[in-house]
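Can anyone check this?
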Amino acid sequence: MRLVLLGAPGSGKGTQAKLLKEELNIPHISTGDLLRAAVAAGTELGKAAKVVMDKGQLVSDEIVLGMLKERLEQDDAKKGFILDGFPRNLVQADMLDKLLDEINMPAEHAVLIEVDPEEVVARIAKRAELEGRSDDTEEVVRDRIKVYENQTAPVVNHYKEHGILSEILGQGGIDQVQQRILAVLRF
């Protein structure tokens, strides 16, 4: 199964991806984790990313896609994967489609985890408190939600047009949300 998880910051994508990884026995691939690992390992792409990150800039889509391609070509991803955090905009969605077609692994499912924006703010505030994250202020979270609505939300229509989008309610218990996702994946 080749799955793309979509949703606003704080919608539970990362939590659900970790659970689905165990349930479906396929790797959870987070582009943020890939970047950090490549930088730490000092790979060629990691070195290129570090130069950009050290300047406080965003890593180019080409570098991220290069890392993603390397990861998807590993043996454990041959039977499927869960993408979390990518694509974040329509340009990335198109680039991802091309990459996945090139390696003969097109996305089969995209699941949108829908959560009310006020619930997202509350969740992230709780996470910030539990994890001691000072960067997750209400103002920052509301800004991230606006960025999501402007840039990432159009990706939902991209997958809807491809006929692979399922939308599920992301509120309720973690297990409830997981069961909703599994239900749409097993239709």
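Reply from J.R.: I decoded it. The chain is about 60% helix and 10% strand.
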